[in-house]
């Protein structure tokens, strides 16, 4: 959700050399991002652990001669590193008792809580008056969260699908039935399976299950309920390979999760089922996404596990998701570059 803000930094400073300091596991997300110049990896639990490790990182940062640090991260640690690295201008939210380390501390605009979380990150730039303070009221402003897949991940994904007998011109339906946040974000496995079964028949599609290592049991439970042939790769992909596989999908059916945001960033049509969370705050930033939810009084509760009967999820029917899937697929078809089978040369 910070991608629109980083893209905005590029727009504001078109000739700047932009470096992202990131944790190792998000490296793949940015490996093909044309709007940044360099990635620096912060191995907080490895090479950069402890005072000696931080000092090593600070020496690297100093050697780069940065003019400005924009802190998208709210931790004290981020501000301390920028200060210690002697970066002359340090901009970020005044949080975590770190205001004194920033040259330009930004106060959070309370309005930002009413809009998509992507505006929270953009709020740092608007706090500096680099962009309009109330960007979210501008009907012409479009949040740009789009990302590209590294060509090697794309090639690996295609090779893996081919290895499993999935042809390039076959529609591919992705299912992401997990959500690491907790059970309150998960639609029911048997309903995922019923939707997949229907789409596999009606679109002659192949089914692909994705998810993290922790979500393997959920993916297995879904796969066990699908009679059509399906490929379960949950727990077996790097983030880069997951991006490559998502890009190959004609459609993703998903819970509110990381893969949902990745599919949105990759312009892959999707249906996102929302329950305990709010699509206004964290919905997919995509023109080819459909959100389905059951508008119960207690939602959004933002709880990890439901204390009552999960009515926000049990009230979402298979038919609703199938209808939304058909709408998303139709939108995807109107944008041929996003549709599997027609995007092989990009
Ligand atoms: S309390 Fe309501 S919104 Fe929260 S998980 Fe339970 S049913 Fe869903």
Account of the protein in words:
The structure is a single chain. This protein is α/β, with parallel strands linked by helices and 346 residues long. It has two domains: 3-137, Rossmann fold (3-Layer(aba) Sandwich); 151-338, Rossmann fold (3-Layer(aba) Sandwich). The chain has 13 helices and eleven strands. It is globular. The protein binds iron/sulfur cluster. Iron/sulfur cluster (SF4) binds at residues 184, 275-276, 296, 298-299, 301, 303, 306-308, 310-312.
List strands and helices in order, with pairings:
Blueprint: H1 3-12, E1 19-22, H2 27-30, E2 38-41, H3 50-64, E3 68-71, H4 76-84, E4 89-93, E5 104-106, H5 118-127, H6 151-163, E6 172-176, H7 189-202, E7 206-209, H8 216-224, E8 230-232, H9 239-248, E9 251-255, H10 258-265, E10 270-274, H11 279-282, E11 289-293, H12 311-314, H13 318-334
Parallel strand pairs: 1-2, 3-4, 4-5, 6-7, 6-9, 7-8, 9-10, 10-11
Helix pairs in contact: 1-5, 6-9, 7-8, 7-13
Residues 184, 275-276, 296, 298-299, 301, 303, 306-308, 310-312 line the site of iron/sulfur cluster.
Quickly list its features.
disordered C terminus, alpha/beta, Rossmann fold, globular, 13 helices, binds iron/sulfur cluster, 346 residues, six-stranded parallel beta sheet, three-stranded parallel beta sheet, 11 strands, 14% strand, 2 domains
